[in-house]
Amino acid sequence: MKIKYLGTAAYEGIPGLFCRCETCEKSRRAGGRNLRSRSQALVNDDLLLDFPPDTLWHFQRFGFDWSKIDCCLITHSHSDHFYPEDMEMAADGYCHGYERTLHYYAAEDAYRRIDALVRRSSMKRAADATKVSPFDEFTAGRYGVLALPASHAPDSSPLVYRISADGKSLFYGHDTGVLSEKSFERLAAAGRLDLISLDCTGGLVSGMRKGHMCLDTCLEVLESMEKAGIVDGRTVKVINHFSHNGGATYEELVAAARPYGIIVSYDGLEIEF
Q1: Which residue numbers delimit the Metallo-beta-lactamase domain (predicted)?
Q2: Sheet holding 270-272, edge to edge
Q3: For residues 183 and 160, what is the distance between their CA atoms, to the nearest angstrom?
Q4: Angstrom distance (rounded) from CA 35 to CA 268
């Protein structure tokens, strides 16, 4: 199994479009892994995680093959993760030679908007939509998926996903604070993870537990997960989804996370596990 991080920032990106804060200025000057687009990931070349406004840029930069992508899981309806206007680029007249039907999975708010879009005659060949509810277990293409409610803005119908295939499993836990007790228990019951990717929007600030997390909260969550048998010494641990408000560049995050064996994501990072 492998995951490729196409984008790794929160809503504003890094550096932010209009921002002149210290983190944005340092990141702009340093370039490279400090430059972050809005979060999106690709699993095994055929499962897309989220559809942000930077999807076109990710396709142009990394050149993934749309003919291989079968499904797309939407975490929630905030615009940095869900930009349905660009889904219509698959419609007749906007593209030629695209023969795939892309299967979208989303909870209430995003599902309603995707469903309205795919009902258009020009889109019926190109896409369909499946509504997902918290705690649903379902199959998306060749993947087994467990959807858990995220601790995030309720009106965005937020979900996080446990994804498994071929004897491997990962947890993509972004745009969430600390999971509820029920969600934690369901995740534990599903078994050990081979890779876990946790929200670290708050970077090196302290005490962020609701809506998003920061590094010290991620460490707390990982400790609890290790006690519950969700992760162990062989689990690949990644932090992702960074905001400039977290007050840290890529290099500063790496220095802080290295003692704990945690990988700091960057745009283009690919991990096989």
Answers
A1: 66-227
A2: 127-131, 102-106, 71-73, 47-49, 40-43, 2-7, 270-272
A3: 10
A4: 11
- The Cβ of residue 95 has, within 10 Å, a number of other Cβ atoms equal to 11
User: Residue 106's beta-bridge partner residues?
Assistant: 131
CA dist., res. 129 & res. 231, Å (int): 32
For residues 186 and 30, what is the distance between their CA atoms, to the nearest angstrom? 42
Beta strands 102-106 and 143-149, pairing class: unpaired
Q: Which of 211, 190, 205, 220 is nearest to 256 (CA)?
A: 205
26 SS3 class: helix
| CA pair distance 100, 152, nearest whole angstrom | 32
Best CA proximity match to 109, nearest among 90, 86, 139, 129: 129
pLDDT tens, position by position, for the chain (273 residues)?
Answer: 999 999 999 999 999 999 999 999 999 999 999 999 999 999 999 999 999 999 999 999 999 999 999 999 999 999 999 999 999 999 988 999 999 999 999 999 999 999 999 998 889 889 999 999 999 999 999 999 999 999 999 999 999 999 999 999 999 999 999 999 999 999 999 999 999 999 999 999 999 999 999 999 999 999 999 999 999 999 999 999 999 999 999 999 999 999 999 999 999 999 999
Q: E strand or H helix at 139, and its extent?
A: strand 137-140
Q: 220 — phi, psi (to 5°)? A: -65, -45
List the end-to-end C-alpha distance of the chain, in Å, as a whole number: 6
Rounded alpha-carbon distances, angstroms, from residue 12 to 34, 54, 55: 13, 12, 15
